[in-house]
Amino acid sequence: MAAAAARSLSGPGRRALPLVVILGATGTGKSELALQLGLRLGGEIVGADSMQVYKGLDIITNKISPQEQALCRHHMISFVDPLVSNYTVVDFRNKAAALIEDIFAREKIPIVVGGTNYYIESLLWKVLVDTKEKTSPSPGRAADRRVELEQLDGRELHCRLSQVDPEMAAKLHPHDKRKVARSLQVFEETGIPHSEFLHRQREEEGGGPLGGPLKYPNSCILWLYADQAALDVRLDKRVEDMVAAGLLEELRDFHRRYNQEKVAENCQDYQHGIFQSIGFKEFHEYLMTEGKCPEETSASLLEKGIQALKLVTKRYARKQNKWVRNRFLRRPGPNVPPVYGLEVSDLSQWDENVLKPALQIVESFIQGRQPSADPVKMESEINEDKRSHHMCELCNRVIIGDREWAAHTKSKSHLHHLKKRLKLHSKLSAVESQVNVTETQGASEGAENLGQDRN
């Protein structure tokens, strides 16, 4: 019925179909909801995961199974060679945006789903800068200028950026080599400072403090969230299920085909491409020593890798939720679509708490009316400068952002350095006082001696 309603309201001169976007931390069931909505609404799914675009590591990147993909058409999954290290968010945006337009043209609903929130952001808002056309890279060769710049020293990069784009340099931490290198790349390949591009986007009609105009005004955003303790338990179990599903065999095979030679040549890079995937680098030590050390040592390294994977997965989930809150829920400006929250803490109530309300919300968008559910409301923190530049001379650290600076001044490290400095000042003051007393006494004794000599 919903699919028929979608078709009846589309086409020339009729209401525009919505772009459905599903946000949420890893383990919240985003892919499952996307599949169920796609089946019921006649939609097609556009993946927005920076690791799932690569071929291979299907288990560790938690790709939807081929059987599930066959039920509803999926895009943007497993099409980039694992040895390509310079696939960027701009590449993703260009390909995915064209797919979305094609889906709309065929009078279907695009359902964007994935855990890489800045990929999703690039589709919703005009926030990226296109530089010159890249030549097609051969496997293993990074033709991208940004990747080349990242090989340089971070302070040197930041110094270069300060000379050509001081405004952007003041907003970026010298240790954030990726963003610094990207801003330098923009200037080198266009001749225009990166900060100037961003100013132009914000000044466009419909632009706002965090970027350019919203590209799909009829955007329906669903946010899946869960109680953190419940989600942590679920994520631990998911790692265990991955191991049971053949994770180790997948890692061994991928390491043998793509990584072993790089390690031998001492040119392994866990910062670019699929090799930065959560889960692969955590098992590096185990993969490198398997069969070359006692079984007890190997078993210990394996357990160490599993526990590390659990820990980093839970940390990533928190980071994803923080991004949603800061970039979607607290995003200032008029160009922000409503975000509808769906709690997934109790999976036994999935149909009642998630699927049913999600369908009602999307159907309301299809029919051009306001959903009965209220969107999530969070106060924007427009007065907080997230790019302010602070130099803590006490700790010899650069801190970016008002909140980060406030947190730093209360941190144990900063307070420890402050306590040491106060103690040092106290000692110096005591020494100076002692010196002054000694000098005064010496002067007094000298005067007395001079008087005695005259007598």
Automatic annotation (TrEMBL):
SUPFAM superfamilies: beta-beta-alpha zinc fingers, P-loop containing nucleoside triphosphate hydrolases. It catalyses: adenosine(37) in tRNA + dimethylallyl diphosphate = N(6)-dimethylallyladenosine(37) in tRNA + diphosphate. GO terms for molecular function: ATP binding; tRNA dimethylallyltransferase activity; zinc ion binding. It is an enzyme of class 2 (transferase). Keywords: ATP-binding, Cytoplasm, Metal-binding, Mitochondrion, Nucleotide-binding, Phosphoprotein, Transferase, Transit peptide, tRNA processing, Zinc, Zinc-finger. Residues 433-455 are annotated as: Disordered. The keyword Zinc applies. It is found in: Cytoplasm; Mitochondrion. One of its GO terms (biological process) is tRNA modification. Its EC number is 2.5.1.75. GO terms for cellular component: mitochondrion. Pfam families: IPPT, zf-C2H2_jaz. Residues 389-414 form the Zinc finger double-stranded RNA binding domain. The keyword Iron does not apply. Residues 433-443 have a biased composition (Polar residues). HAMAP family: IPP_trans (MF_00185). Catalyzes the transfer of a dimethylallyl group onto the adenine at position 37 of both cytosolic and mitochondrial tRNAs, leading to the formation of N6-(dimethylallyl)adenosine (i6A37). Mediates modification of a limited subset of tRNAs: tRNA(Ser)(AGA), tRNA(Ser)(CGA), tRNA(Ser)(UGA), as well as partial modification of the selenocysteine tRNA(Ser)(UCA). TRIT1 is therefore required for selenoprotein expression. PANTHER family: TRNA DIMETHYLALLYLTRANSFERASE. Belongs to the IPP transferase family. This is tRNA dimethylallyltransferase. It comes from Mauremys mutica.
